[in-house]
Amino acid sequence: MANPSLLILAGDGIGPEVMEQVKRVIGWFGDKRDLAFDVSEDLVGGAAYDAHGTPLHDDTMAKALEADAVLLGAVGGPKYDDLDFSVKPERGLLRLRKEMDLFSNLRPAQCFDALADFSSLKKDVVAGLDIMIVRELTSGVYFGEPRGIFEEGNERVGINTQRYTEGEIDRVARSAFELARRRSGKVCSMEKANVMESGILWREVVQKVRDTDYLDIELSHMYADNGAMQLVRAPKQFDVILTDNLFGDILSDCAAMLTGSLGMLPSASLGKPTENGPPRALYEPVHGSAPDIAGQGKANPIACILSFAMALRYSFDQGAEAARLEAAIETVLANGARTADLMGAEGGTPISTTEMGDAILGAL
Amino acid sequence: MANPSLLILAGDGIGPEVMEQVKRVIGWFGDKRDLAFDVSEDLVGGAAYDAHGTPLHDDTMAKALEADAVLLGAVGGPKYDDLDFSVKPERGLLRLRKEMDLFSNLRPAQCFDALADFSSLKKDVVAGLDIMIVRELTSGVYFGEPRGIFEEGNERVGINTQRYTEGEIDRVARSAFELARRRSGKVCSMEKANVMESGILWREVVQKVRDTDYLDIELSHMYADNGAMQLVRAPKQFDVILTDNLFGDILSDCAAMLTGSLGMLPSASLGKPTENGPPRALYEPVHGSAPDIAGQGKANPIACILSFAMALRYSFDQGAEAARLEAAIETVLANGARTADLMGAEGGTPISTTEMGDAILGAL
Ligand SMILES: CC(C)[C@H](C(=O)O)[C@@H](O)C(=O)O
Ligand SMILES: CC(C)[C@H](C(=O)O)[C@@H](O)C(=O)O
Prior knowledge:
Two copies of one chain form a homodimer.
Chain A: E1 5-11, H1 15-32, E2 38-42, H2 46-52, H3 58-66, E3 69-74, H4 89-99, E4 104-110, H5 123-126, E5 130-136, E6 144-152, E7 155-165, H6 166-181, E8 186-191, H7 197-213, E9 218-223, H8 224-233, E10 240-243, H9 245-258, E11 266-270, E12 281-285, H10 302-314, H11 319-334, H12 353-363
Bound molecules: 3-isopropylmalic acid (2 copies).
C-alpha cells in the first residue's frame, strides 16, 4: 500500500523554520515507528505571491485536494500589508479552507502544567485547563455575499454578509457532538441570538441536532459576549465550545491566550468524514508568522509539531502515536527546555528552534 | 432656568433595586450641591412588555428623545426567553440606541485598587488598569439589512448584514479621538480588515480622520482577534480602543471581566454633540439584569451609580461633581464595604444594596 501523503505548506515568517523541525519529527516516525509518509512541499501566502503573484497557485490547490493531509506553517507579514485584498497572504489560507471544505476547525486551549505560570491569569484559574473550541470555518461573514465596498449616494459603504444555512450549522454541530462524546460529553454553543437572526437559526439547529441524535450530550447556549467574559472569569467551566466562524476567530484567540503560551497551540481543520479514508484536513499552529523574529532561529516549533500530532490522531487514526509525541513534548518541557517565548520571570537561557527539535527527538 | 431632565428606565431584574440607590444619590446632589434634576420614570424591557406588550412604548421613546439624559438599569430575564425576537426585552434597548442615535458607546474598564484581587488575572497585569472602549452603537450587524431567516431551496438560511458607511465610521472615530485628547492621546482601532471589506473601509476612514484633524493622536490598528488576545495578555498596553458594534460587544465584555468586578462598571452612550445643550445620552451599568439575585436586596448598585457619575460628566459638564461621587465610592471600597458580588476569598459579611447606598451617601 502506498504511504499516506502529506503536503507541507510552510508559508511565511517563522513558518519555514518551525516546519523544519516538524519534518525531522515526521522522519523519525518513518524510521522508528514504521509510519512513513510521502511528503511534498509547496508555497502558500506571501511566499506564493512572491513566486507566482497569487497567495495560492491553482496547482498547489490541486495538490492540497489530493493530499491525505496538509500541514501549514503560517502566512502573512508586513511586506504584504499593502497588497490588494484579493492577493493578500490570508486569501491563500481562506481559499484552502473553502475549497477543501474544512468546515470544522478544532482549536484546543490547553494549559501545560510546566507552563501554567506563563498565563496572565492566576494559576488556579488556568492550571489543568483543557478546552476544545469547534469553530465553523467555511461560511458566515468570512464568505457571505454580497460583500465589498460600494458607492452609495456620495459616500462609500463597506458591506459583509453573515450567512448560515441549516445544513452548514447541522454538520459542524455534529462534529462538535462527536468530539464531545470522546471527552466530557458537554458542549456550550455561542452566538448572539439576542440580536442576530442568524444566531437564532444557529441556536435552533444546534438544539435540534442534539435532541435528535445526541441525547447523551449536555448542551448549553450562551451569548458570545458573555462567552468572552466567562472564558476570562472561569474558563474551566467549559469543555467543548461550538461557535461560528467570526465568533470562533475571536473566542478561540481569547481562549488560546488564557494558556499564556501561544507557541504551544495546534489546530486542525477537518472536512466531511468519508467512508474509506480520512476526511480532508489541514493542520496548523495557532500562532502567526511572527515576522519580528523570523529567520532568527528563535521560534518555538512545538505548536507546529503538535499540529502534526493532531494529524496523526484525526487523519491517520494513530492516536497512540500522537500521544507518544505529546508525551515527549511534555517531558521536554518538564525537563526545563524553553525557547525564547517560554522564558519566564526566572530568566535562564533560551534554546533555539533546532535545539527544541533536538530535545523532542531525544525524548522520543 | 428649568432643571435638567432625567428619564429613569429601571427595567428588569436587579434594575429597579440598584436604581433606587441612584435616586438617593441624585436627591443628594439636589439637596447638597444645588444640582437639582427633574426626574421622571418609565418602563423598558420585560417590564414594558408586561404592561404594554412591547419592550418600549412609543410614549416612552418620545420622553427619551426629550430628556436631557436617560438612566437605564438593565433589561431581560428568563421569563421573556421564549418571546418573539421582535418583542424581546433587548429590542427596547436597541430601539432607544437607534432612535436616539447614540452612536458612541463609552465603556471604561477600570480596575479599582481595593478590588484588584478580584480579577482572575494576576494582580500586576491588571492593577491600575484604565481602558476606555469606544464602541459604535447604532450600525453594523446589529441593524444592517437584509436580515432574517429565509427559505432557500429546501432549507432555511439565517442572514445578517454588516454595514458601515464612511459617515458612520467618521463620526465615531472623532468621538474616540476627542476622548483620547483628554486622556493619553493614544487610540487603537480594531477590526478584521484581513477578511472583511467593511473592516478595510473602517481602517481607511479612521486613519483618514486621524490624518486630517487629529494629528496629535497616536493611532494604531489591530485585528480584533489579536485585540482579544492582547487584552488578556497585557491589557495595560491600551488606552482608548475604538471598534464597531459587534466586536465592541465582545471586546468590551472581555475587557470588563479583566477587572474582575462587573458590578463596578458603568457605560455611556452618546449622540451627536450639539451647540447649545448636551448630546442625547443614555447611561447604564455594564452588568445585566441578574435574574438569579433579583429582588433579594443583594445587588451591587455601584455600576449604576457610576453611570450617573458619567452623566454628570458627559451630559451636564459637571466633571468636578462626577469626581466627587467617584471619590466617595473609592473611599467606601477602601473602607471595606462589600456587596455579595465583591466578597473575596477572605470572606466577611456582605452588605445589602441599600447599605451600600447608605455608605456612599455617608461618604459624600
Ligand atoms: C489569518 C486569518 C485570515 C485567520 C482568520 O481570521 O481566520 C486567523 O486569524 C485564524 O484565526 O486562523
Ligand atoms: C442586551 C444586548 C442587546 C446588548 C448588546 O448586545 O449590545 C448587551 O450585550 C450590551 O453589550 O449592551
